[in-house]
Amino acid sequence: MNGGTLELNALDWGILAFYFGIVVVIGVLARRAVATSSDFFLSGRSLPAWITGLAFVSANLGALEILGNAANGAEYGVAAVHFYWLGAIPAMVVLGVVLMPFYYDTGVHSVPEYLRRRFNAPTHFLNALIFAIAQVLIAGVNLFALALVIRSLLGWQLWISIVVSAAFVLTYITLGGLFSAIYTEVLQFFIILAGLLPIVVIGLHQVGGFDGLYDRIGDPALFRTWEGTAAGSWSNPLGDWIGLAMGEGFVLSFGYWATNFAEVQRTLSAKDLSAARRTPIIGAFPKMFFPLLTIVPGMIALVLVPRLGAEGGPSYNDAIPELMGRLLPNGVLGVALTGLLAAFMAGMAANVSGFNAVFTYDLWKPYVVRGRSDGYYLKVGRVVTAAGIAASVGTAFIAAGYSNIQDYIQLLFSYFNSPLFATFIIGLFWKRTTPWAAFWGIITGTAAAAIAHNAAYSIPYFYPGGVLDPTGESINAQMVNFYSAIAAFLVDAVVMVLVSLVTKPRPDAELTGLVWALRDRAPRPAEVWWRSPVVLGALALAVVVAMSVGLVLIY
Amino acid sequence: MPKRRIFDLRVLIGAVFAIYGVALGVAGLLDDPASLAKAGGLPINLWTGLGMLALGVFFLLWARFGRDEGRPEETPDD
To answer: Distance between CA A115 and CA A424 in Å, rounded?
Structure first.
């Protein structure tokens, strides 16, 4: 066990071992609260909003997200805040303020079930199947990425880290279900803060604060957020404003935050509608300040880590691990390592807990073995959890065989989220949308994303300066991703309208509470202002707008 | 079957952070010059330890004196 870059001492190992012990304790204690399948898959709709809110943001805070956004900070500079302020906060607020009643009040247990009630069984089956497969693949990619980080930091073999971390996730999810996942996510949220903050504090101290960072990076382009996004002649590292605002800010972010069940599941475990609506908004407040903990260290690494991102040097993804090794003394080093590993496990646990709920409730129960007792489905849920984790260990080893399969899989699932969001939102606001329109919309939208993504490589506009590069290497990959999402949305929308015009809609009586025109109009009980989703949501948006304007003015 | 209650999450977070905070704080007081130099002269273990301890104490006080909102609610219809 040597060859790693970190020099750990007994205190670091103690901090790490203590956390893993606590996670198992959470699983064992949470098991006592699980009596029914609803407890296991939905936490029995009983949790207060501060817990579901922190779990909501934490489920997204996998280490791929942390390392990836530090890499974005190093590569694209301050413009990477768009992934937070444009790509997350508005969607989280809209989910809480506008969309949540359609999930929570209708009593659906999952996003696929919403599709079944709003559209038909084929759409439900299609979405549930895609989601289940996607979650196992993403969990596998998470495991593989974890093993890579552990190998470089500690020198462990890939298979040891894969099997050990899978075993821990298996233990606490099989025992306590969603309770375990959510409790661990909230604890992990604070551990990650405690691990990342020291890196930022020491890093800023070393480079001489934000002014020192600006001077020592010496490239004003890396401090621009909206400059250079003019359509037709972009020079911003993230492309033009159409792709940014419509692709990232609208289709991709809403697809992820509002229709991805791994996220929505956290809101559905809240104790009442008010708590469910506040869940994503409470999550939005810490989320909007996370650029400080990811993008800023990425930029600090540009100064402090020689040859970062250069040929033969460490890759941008190594920004945070490199800083850990250089800046953190033993003690906080153990906390940071624990935070990183906790983030990997929680990211995987979110995938697994979404997977087992959809597999059991949306595939096994309606299509394979119907009408058995609740205890039977609870047992199925536990077995499926184990099977899902075993499968993701398998996909982790497949991922290990391909150097860039991770990017590819992430991309593939952004293909699936974009049409799903288009189908969801059009079906919600246009009552005439028919069941078969949803089905064909999802299929053609997914195909459109794939075609657009491939076609972009032969369109000069997607290359810096508008010059086609036959190797495709210099293409603006983020911009391609944004435009593919827009293509998926538009094709899905057009197909849905056309199919709706020639097929039969469902009668109004079956759509009560599921579409905007037939929403529940009863006045909601008044709440003190600091518990009102509308007030909190407006506050979150106001803070983000103020910070965005501030960045443009300062740099 | 009567539902057994799960523990209060605030107590768990409070205990974990208090323990980590004390451990880091003590380590920070004993840090040798090499550790301090690595962090650019900042007593980062001590600061982080105090911060974690403060967060832990906050959660424990909230659990002790606040309302019962640190765990799932009892649902009578279950």
So the answer is: 8
Locate A181 and state its tokens.
């996942």
Residue B11 lies in a domain: yes
Asked if the structure places residue B76 within a domain, the reply is: no
Furthest-apart CA atoms within chain A: distance in Å? 70
Range of the domain at B44: 7-65
Q: Tell me the chain A residues in contact with residue B44 when contact means C-beta distances shorter than 8 Å.
A: 198, 201-202, 328-329, 332
How far is B3 from chain A, CA to nearest CA, in Å?
Answer: 7
* Chain B residues within an 8 Å CB radius of A38: 78
State residue A542's pLDDT score: 96
Cα A335-A339-A344 angle, rounded to 5 deg? 150
Tokens of A362: 């949306």
In a domain, B78, yes or no: no
Per DSSP (E only), the strands in A337-473 are: none
In a domain, B47, yes or no: yes
DSSP secondary structure code for residue A4 in this structure: -
pTM metric for this prediction: 0.92
Count CB atoms within 10 A of the CB of residue A497: 15
Q: How many domains does chain B have?
A: 1
In Å, how far is A412's CA from the nearest CA of chain B?
36
- Report yes or no for ipTM above 0.90: yes
Using a CB-CB cut-off of 8 Å, the residues of chain B touching A186 are 9, 13
* Residue A330: CB atoms within 10 Å: 20
Residues of chain A predicted below pLDDT 50: 1-2
First CA to last CA distance, chain B: 9
| Whether B75 and A46 lie within 8 Å, measured CB to CB | yes
Residues of chain A positioned with their CB less than 8 A from the CB of B43: none
Query: Contact A93/A544 with Cβ under 8 angstroms?
Result: no
Cβ-defined contact of B13 to A36 (cutoff 8 Å): no
Confidence label for B75 from pLDDT (cuts 50, 70 and 90): low
